[in-house]
Design a protein that fits this description.
about 350 residues, alpha/beta, two-stranded antiparallel ribbon, about 45% helix
Length: about 350
């Protein structure tokens, strides 16, 4: 699609997308990723002996969205799962209305998971969900969603990721972004380079640079309006099996180097995924990133965390009605800590 003869989005649509992105990029604020699939929730609940049913998941999301508004002020937006869009609170209030009443911008996950990429022996995957994507975007926009998310999964191994996997994943992100934007949804671009493996932090840096370069080339080829997008990347960390774990200062430096080399300044915000980091590790690394000086940073840098905001909350709640307040208190502690990390300034 790379051509010099193409059509820009209408001015009104560009203005709408830019306004939505700006409303999410509030200083000191980040995004709550509450879009776990029922299958993912089963994994989160299993170790805590919490039943994984639609009603229990509804109760859990209700716990999150009935926290006091002021205590959730560091959250500017939330990514929801399709299931949550049609659920209501005990008081018969739609979850979407609850989110909006908190002053939080609602969004939704659009991908449908991953399938093995042919010829890779199951070592690499490709994101699915293009079928019916335009119709789903229209539906979610009509419900009040303002942005969306699509995850490109990248694994690091001895001979992966392959160029083919990176290019196909980047192309998928670009196609999704274009469909979102024409329907008035700001697309979150999420190239997620997994931490599994024994690779060191420099190997992660190299893969991150190559992936970001491919993603933004694809977005350029598809003429995506960058001012109306957000980026949700991994931090540059050591693999979970590496004998030497990179500390916050090194993570911050290498993460910002990779981003500064490949993410255009037109992108308004970078919201990091936690990628299986512990709650404290994710907060410490974000704090170090925002306190780092000497590396160009033309975009906002904040958080888009799921487990790193909710693990202690679920552990305190345990699926019990009597523990709702405990769960909320644990959740609000993490929200406050990450809001402070997002507000940090270069030293």
């Amino acid at each position: 699609m790379s051509t010099t003869k193409f059509t820009y989005l209408p001015d009104e649509l560009q203005a709408e997308l830019k306004s939505i992105a700006s409303s999410i990029c509030k200083p000191g604020c980040g995004i709550l990723a509450a879009d776990e699939t029922p299958k993912a929730m089963a994994l989160r609940f299993a170790s805590l002996n919490i039943p994984n049913t639609p009603e229990v998941r509804r109760k859990y999301r209700q716990l999150l969205f009935t926290c006091p508004k002021d205590d959730l002020s560091p959250i500017s937006a939330v990514i929801l799962h399709n299931e949550t869009l049609y659920q209501k609170t005990d008081d018969d209030v739609p979850m979407l209305d609850m989110v909006k009443s908190l002053g939080i911008v609602p969004g939704v996950t659009l991908d449908k998971g991953w399938v093995d990429l042919a010829g890779t022996g199951g070592k690499e995957v490709f994101t699915q969900g293009m079928d019916g994507l335009d119709e789903r975007c229209k539906e979610y926009k009509s419900l009040g969603c303002q942005f969306a998310k699509w995850r490109m999964v990248v694994n690091i191994g001895e001979d992966i990721p392959s160029v083919e996997a990176i290019e196909e994943g980047a192309r998928g992100l670009a196609m999704y972004a274009g469909i979102c934007q024409r329907n008035g949804l700001v697309p979150i671009i999420e190239p997620d380079i997994g931490r599994a493996g024994d690779h060191d932090v420099i190997r992660n840096l190299k893969v991150t640079e190559v992936v970001l370069a491919a993603v933004y080339k694809a977005l350029a080829d598809h003429h995506i309006y960058l001012e109306g997008t957000l980026l949700k990347p991994n931090m540059v960390t050591s693999g979970t099996g590496c004998t030497v774990e990179a500390g916050p200062q090194q993570v911050a430096e290498l993460t910002l180097l990779a981003l500064s080399r490949h993410v255009p300044p037109a992108v308004p915000g970078v919201f990091f995924l936690s990628g299986g980091q512990s709650e404290q590790m994710a907060t410490d690394n974000l704090m170090a990133i925002n306190q780092m000086s000497g590396i160009p940073r033309p975009w906002m840098t904040s958080f888009c965390y799921g487990r790193a905001l909710q693990d202690s909350c679920r552990s305190a709640w345990l699926g019990q009605e009597d523990n709702v307040k405990k769960g909320q208190e644990a959740f609000m502690v993490r929200v406050k800590a990450n809001g402070e990390a997002a507000s940090a300034k270069p030293l």
